[in-house]
Please model this.
Amino acid sequence: MKVRYLVVAGAVAVLQAAQPAFAASCSGWTAKMEEDEGGSVLTASVCGGPKGDAYLMLACFDKPVLSYDLGSSGQQTEPGISGAFDFKADGKTVTKTLQLEEMYGYFVVDLAKADPLLDLLRSKGDVSVSAAKYGAVSFPLRGSSGAIGKVLAQCGKAKPAGEAD
Model:
């Protein structure tokens, strides 16, 4: 019995070591400075999907902007497209039309600070993001309220003198 336990424990340790680093980072939302073409921007983000390569990212320029990187399921994107995406969490659904940002290959949508989608993203559990053409991807909402709150607190604040738009 003891030998079987050690073999199973050893196999689990090998499997855990073999998992890519993204697995740990998909446990919840973070808010940190990310580089953008205009400089550093406070960004709330989370990864998800079966491979951990899909991302939801919220940054604020003049208003909040949500970006959705489809990850490996985004290989079928074409320039100039948009799509209706359903965001489902906590028994609620918010549908938004997202435009493909060709430079980065992300779908993006501008939001109001009091947008129902931001409220949905600050709920509990997981959020499922789906579109007929791209399927559904699930993201954890753990830490989303704090991370999104940090970004929204910076939203609309004047930039320091000498900083470009």
In short: Residues 1-24, 160-165 have pLDDT under 50 and may be disordered. The longest strand covers residues 39-48. Residues 23 and 90 are 24 Å apart (CA to CA). Helices lie at 2-18, 22-25, 116-121, 144-154.
